């Protein structure tokens, strides 16, 4: 029986000096997804400018948590080491109902690990940090969209298929 040695991955809340790296990782996420839903992408990169403004505001928002893992050799708070991984959680207040007693829904948005830092437990550590935050905030349910590569991690953390069908609409 082989035993896997667990290494502690330091997760911290993102700071303003992480913005450039957060933008890089978010762009990497969409490069990896690249499916029909995300195409055609905006060619001019203007979405990154808009993302920078929104992320800067959300870094300190009460209903958003952005967690990061510093790249190998980086120390928590080290502005020069880059990021190995990040993940974003949001909380939305909806109307309570029989399956959502307090109406608080969490959403995990874009957990992504730089390819050079994958398979080291960074995404799992980020997810555990987000799930702890959701529990502290008394969220009744947490939703996420999983890539085929990420689905085994999320299922191992207790996520299951959602019973409701999901549809979307985009205005013309």
Describe this structure in words.
- The chain is built from 4 helices and 5 strands; from the N terminus they run E-H-H-E-E-E-H-E-H.
- It has a 5-stranded mixed sheet.
- The protein has 172 residues and is an alpha+beta fold.
- The radius of gyration is 17 Å and the shape is globular.
- Mean pLDDT is 85; it is low at 1-6 and 74-79.
- 21% of the residues are buried.
- It is 28% helix and 20% strand.
Query: What is the chains' assembly state?
Result: single chain
Rg over C-alpha atoms, rounded to the nearest angstrom = 17 Å
Q: Which structural class best describes the helix and strand composition?
A: alpha+beta
Percentage beta strand:
15-25%
Approximate helicity band: 25-40%
Question: In angstroms, what separates the terminal alpha carbons?
Answer: 57 Å
Helix count, per DSSP?
Answer: 4
Indicate the mean pLDDT: 85
Strand arrangement, major sheet: 1-2-3-4-5
How is the biggest beta sheet arranged?
5 strands, mixed
SSE sequence, one letter per element: EHHEEEHEH
Low-confidence blocks of residues: 1-6, 74-79
Let me know the number of strands.
Answer: 5
Judging from the principal axes of the Cα atoms, what is the shape? globular
Summarize this structure as a short list of keywords or feature phrases:
alpha+beta, 5-stranded mixed beta sheet, 5 strands, globular, disordered N terminus
